[in-house]
Amino acid sequence: MNNTKHILVVGGGAAGLIAAGFAARRGLSVTILERNDNVARKVMITGKGRCNLTNNCTVEEFMENVPKNPRFLYSSINGFTPHDTMRLIESLGVPLKTERGRRVFPQSDKAADIVDALRRFALKSGAKILKGRAVSLTIENGELKGVATENGGCIKADAVIVSTGGKSYPLTGSTGDGYVMARQAGHTITELSPSLVPIVTSDADIRQAQGLSLKNVTVTVKCGDKTIFSELGEMLFTHFGVSGPLILSASSHMRDIGKKQYAISIDLKPGLDMQQLDARILRDFEKYRNSFLQNSLGDLLPKSIIPVIIGRSKVAGDTVINQITKKQRQDIADAIKNLTLSVTGFRPIEEAIITSGGVSVREIDPKTMQSKKLPGLYFAGEVIDVDAYTGGYNLQIAFATGAAAGKNV
Q1: Among 35, 207, 293, 394, which residue is least crowded by beta carbons within 10 Å?
Q2: Minimal CA–CA distance to 33: which of 116, 125, 151, 155?
Q3: CATH top class, domain 6-193+355-408
């Protein structure tokens, strides 16, 4: 008689592949049910296709970057640390490198190498991958028996690990299926909202800069008088407001956006203090002393942002340079160093990188990831109500919770 336990992992993303690999290593019969033709589609697009897979930090530093339910992650992160992730990926033949902010990437800068490594880990450990979509759990007399599939079939299992992701990026397969199954088992789903998401602003003049991408600018976010985020990096002006890496990072620090007032300040020239910037403007003004203001800032600023800066400074664009006062020059410098935007909201959750909210952590065993509502049901990854800032922390959550589920299922 074959007494091998059959484990079904629903969702072949980062958490699912890690969970499957560790479970299969223990001699369990493991099947990954993945609705897409290829596994880990969301991993493929992370880090602009480069895959920022974790952060080269200590557990304590990691926890400081998890604003939502960090205590729940204490056991799983200690059980599978960022350095454990790095060791595993490198053992699978993918050399890694650490960049600014301790962000960890494959040396090749190809997310596909990470996806291939995760697939290899699961398959070489003994797991199988099956294409299909689970639509509900199969529960008989209060016991978990497996899942029902989209095509009307049923897959029997002794235990099920739900690692279906959240609701962000639905084109990658994250359409909220895991929440349906969790509710079926009696779980509470906390309010779902976008995190790491483009920001909508109310500033009509900014639309003139639509499509402009900036590097080496500083974005600062304030809630009232309190600074909650400030970082140097890249951003993008859009038809609705702002996006890009800096903005996505900033968004994860903005909670209860409907109840609190947030403002974004952009320093277009963070490498120059006000005195240095004024000296630079003076040099340009000397060069263009007989020109109009609107034709005199091209050496300093991108063309599409110039009308915005002139408008914010309240100096007429057709003012001849040799007629501009010292006060007007300072107003121009102020607009460059402090381009302020009023935040009105986030873009839809479908455009977010991460879903904030999910299966309540109060109803999951933090050591094993097993449901407290239904024995044999486990959760891993973004479907759980935990999320973190950018920098590789969210993928590390997927790896750590996946490892915990796989080692304990």
Answers
A1: 207
A2: 155
A3: alpha beta
| First-residue to last-residue Cα distance in the chain | 21
Cα→Cα distances 303→158, 212, 296, 300, Å: 63, 9, 10, 9
The pLDDT of residue 259 is 82
Q: What share of the chain in percent tops pLDDT 90?
A: 88
| Contacts of residue 402, Cβ cutoff 8 Å, sequence gap at least 6 | 14, 15, 16, 17, 18, 19, 22, 163, 380, 381
Residue pair 160/62 in contact (Cβ under 8 Å)? The answer is no
Residue 69 in tokens: 């339910």
Phi, psi of 7 (to 5 degrees): -110, 130
| Nearest-angstrom CA–CA distance, 303 and 295 | 9
Q: What's the CA gap between 357 and 409, in Å, rounded?
A: 24
Q: DSSP assignment of 6-25, as one string?
A: EEEEE--SHHHHHHHHHHHH
Contact 214, 268 (CB under 8 A): yes
- State pTM to two decimals: 0.88
Domain spans of the chain, in order of start: 6-193+355-408, 198-346
Alpha carbon distance 181, 139 (integer Å): 11
AA identity, residue 401? T
Tell me: the pLDDT tens digits for 176-219? 899 999 999 999 999 998 888 999 999 999 999 999 999 999 99
Max Cα distance, the chain (Å): 95
Instruction: Report the alpha-carbon distance of residue 366 to residue 76 in Å, rounded.
Output: 7
Question: Which amino acid appears at position 355 of this protein?
Answer: T
Could you tell me the CA-to-CA distances from 52 to 56, 103, 115, 191, 214 in Å, in that order?
11, 6, 12, 27, 21
